[in-house]
């Protein structure tokens, strides 16, 4: 006695379960499912992708396996993960969708049930399928037929309205064509009237006397000459304007190129003037303080009258050194004052020369190459510091006396 075949049950969730005992039963079920839903590729490709790849893969696995038992784990795992979120042909939703009739409506309902985009969703059958599926999911399938009938009635009303509107549009088009014809007739009459007026004008011109024709020719000649003069004036004005624009453009470019030097010399002038003020104040303070200090120091060094038999050589030498240092300090401060004053004035002159150069360019003075060379050499000549080079050491009074003796 042969052993009964083992039953393999597949749980498909809301779609229920299916039981197979042989490979052939499984293949038959899969092929029936594929044949049922193949039309989705034509109407709702997104919905077809949820069905056909899974079914084709499982069919290929079964065709390549000798028995159902040897491939059951792979097939059951694939169907469990990929086929539970769709509806089968034996499920309640499957029976309802397939009962809708036209494939386009069925495909739209299936796409709505499995929650994929419905494209296109604006056709009559697609809208009908979506409405029927929506009504079924709300738990009242009895409303599906009234909704479908209402949808058909709405479509019929829209068709009737469009037929009436199209009739009105045709009437308007007919009226427009009639108006176009009337306008063309009016235009033809107007053209004929204009031609008649032109013929009368030509006849009147022919009837003019020779003197009148000569006057008209002279006036025409004068007009042409005036037009030529105006054209020459306009050309000259255009040329002048172009030259001015070229000068402005050149000045702008030169100004961009010389903007940094102008700012540099202005900054240097301000800085040197500040230093000159500082050293001027320092010179006055050093002169007052130094005079008072020299008076006090010499009073301490030479408190008694000097006699011929008693000459304080050491104190006299100290006094000469102090006086020499004080004079050198005052002289150095004065030189720094005059140096910064000189550099400030020089920087201001350079900034004025740069601005003058820009003004000459703007006014179209037409500087030649030699003039530009002289201006640029004057603007960018090396600046002297104003400090005499022999100020490095203080002028010793003793050395000066020795040089004078020589």
Quick summary:
The protein has 406 residues and is mostly helical. The protein has helices at 23-37, 40-43, 45-63, 68-82, 92-98, 103-113, 124-137, 144-206, 210-301, 313-362, 369-379, 397-405, and strands at residues 8-11, 17-20.
List the helices and strands and how they pair.
Blueprint: E1 8-11, E2 17-20, H1 23-37, H2 40-43, H3 45-63, H4 68-82, H5 92-98, H6 103-113, H7 124-137, H8 144-206, H9 210-301, H10 313-362, H11 369-379, H12 397-405
Antiparallel strand pairs: 1-2
Helix pairs in contact: 1-3, 3-4, 5-6, 6-7, 7-8, 9-10
Protein architecture, described:
- This protein is mainly α and 406 residues long.
- The chain folds into two domains: 8-139, no CATH class; 246-405.
- It contains twelve helices and two strands.
- The chain has a two-stranded antiparallel sheet.
- Strand 1 and strand 2 form a beta hairpin.
- Helix 5 (92-98) runs antiparallel to helix 6 and helix 6 packs across helix 7 (124-137).
- The radius of gyration is 57 Å and the shape is flat.
- The termini are far apart.
- Residues 392-402 have low confidence and may be disordered.
């Amino acid at each position: 006695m042969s052993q009964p075949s083992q039953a393999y049950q597949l749980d498909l969730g809301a779609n229920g379960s299916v039981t197979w005992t042989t490979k052939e039963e499984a293949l038959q079920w899969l092929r029936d499912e594929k044949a049922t839903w193949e039309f989705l590729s034509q109407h709702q490709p997104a919905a077809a992708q949820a069905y056909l790849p899974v079914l084709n893969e499982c069919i290929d696995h079964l065709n390549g396996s000798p028995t159902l038992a040897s491939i059951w784990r792979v097939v059951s795992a694939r169907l469990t993960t990929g086929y539970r979120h769709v509806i089968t042909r034996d499920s309640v939703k499957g029976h309802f969708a397939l009962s809708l009739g036209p494939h386009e409506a069925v495909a739209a309902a299936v796409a709505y049930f499995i929650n994929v985009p419905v494209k296109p969703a604006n056709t009559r059958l697609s809208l009908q399928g979506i409405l029927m599926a929506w009504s079924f999911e709300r738990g009242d399938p009895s409303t599906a037929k009234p909704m479908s009938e209402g949808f058909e009635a709405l479509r019929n009303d829209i068709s009737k309205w469009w037929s009436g509107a199209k009739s009105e549009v045709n009437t308007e088009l007919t009226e427009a064509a009639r108006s176009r014809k009337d306008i063309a007739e009016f235009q033809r009459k107007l053209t004929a009237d204009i031609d008649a007026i032109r013929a009368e004008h030509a006849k009147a011109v022919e009837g003019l006397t020779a003197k009148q024709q000569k006057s008209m020719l002279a006036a025409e000649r004068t007009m042409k000459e005036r037009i030529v003069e105006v054209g020459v004036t306009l050309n000259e004005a255009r040329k002048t304007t172009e030259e001015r624009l070229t000068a402005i453009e050149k000045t702008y470019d030169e100004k961009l190129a010389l903007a940094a030097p102008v700012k540099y010399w202005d900054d240097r002038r301000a800085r040197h003037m500040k230093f000159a003020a500082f050293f001027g104040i320092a010179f006055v303070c050093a002169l007052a303080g130094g005079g008072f200090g020299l008076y006090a120091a010499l009073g301490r060094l030479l408190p008694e009258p000097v006699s011929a038999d008693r000459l304080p050589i050491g104190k006299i030498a100290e006094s000469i050194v102090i006086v020499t240092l004080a004079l050198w300090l005052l002289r150095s401060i004065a030189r720094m004052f005059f140096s910064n004053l000189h550099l400030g004035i020089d920087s201001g002159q350079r900034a004025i020369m740069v601005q003058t150069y820009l003004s000459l360019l703007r006014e179209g003075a037409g500087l030649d190459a030699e003039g530009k060379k002289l201006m640029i050499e004057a603007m960018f000549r090396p600046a002297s510091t104003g400090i005499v080079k022999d100020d490095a050491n203080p002028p010793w009074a003793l050395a000066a006396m020795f040089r004078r003796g020589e």
